[in-house]
Every structure is written in C-alpha cells, then in structure tokens.
UniProtKB/TrEMBL annotation:
InterPro entries: Ribosomal_eL34 (IPR008195), Ribosomal_eL34_C_sf (IPR038562), Ribosomal_eL34_CS (IPR018065), Ribosomal_L34e_arc-type (IPR047868). This is Large ribosomal subunit protein eL34. Transmembrane segments: none annotated. It holds the Pfam family Ribosomal_L34e.
Length: 111
C-alpha cells in the first residue's frame, strides 16, 4: 500500500494554484512539494511574439527585479520587439517624406 502524505497548505482542492508533487526525501519519507504556476514570457504589443531579453516571471516578481532587467536598451524596450520598432520608425519616416513631397508639389502648382 502507498505511503500517505500530508498536505502543507490549507486548501485540499486540485486547483491550478494548488498543484503538488510527491517527492521522496533523502531520509526515505514522502513529502508534498507545492508547485508554482509556470510564468509566460512577456509579449510584443504589436505582433504578439515573446520579447527576447526580458525574463519570464510571474507578474508580482517583476517588482523585485531591477529596471534594466525588465527592458532592453532601445526605444519601446520592454514592450515592442525590434522588428516592430523598425517598422514604426520606417513608417514615421515615410509619412514625413510624404508630407514634404505634398508640400513641394503644392508650392510648384502655385507658381
């Protein structure tokens, strides 16, 4: 017959926040280890891919790490991926160029 184990937390229910694993100690006893939820990687706000360079932690754990670990040294560092930042910069440049071209055409038509 299997050896019985006692739960360490008060809640006996099999919920996602109360997952557990039975582990055998070096002394031969069986004890319950409560497992934490797996952390998901922070995602890019535009395309949704995981952000490289930012650690995957549970939301509350981001308060304990330093600011330089939460972002990447770039514009939109901890919220957008490099590809999306590149496309934003390019789009902004093209919009400005289009405004200049429009202005030049308008001034030529006046003459």
């Amino acid at each position: 017959m299997a050896q019985r184990v006692t739960l360490r937390k008060r809640t006996p229910y099999n919920t996602t926040s109360n997952r557990r694993r039975v582990v055998k100690t070096p002394g031969g006893r069986l004890v319950v280890h409560h497992l934490k939820k797996p952390a998901s990687q922070p995602k890019c706000g535009d395309c949704g891919i995981g952000l490289p360079g930012v650690p995957a932690l549970r939301p509350r754990q981001y308060a304990t790490i330093s600011k330089r670990q939460k972002s990447v040294n770039r514009a939109y560092g901890g919220s957008r991926c490099a590809t999306c930042v590149k496309s934003r910069v390019l789009r902004a440049f093209l919009v400005e160029e289009a405004k200049i071209v429009k202005k030049v055409i308008k001034s030529q038509q006046k003459k």
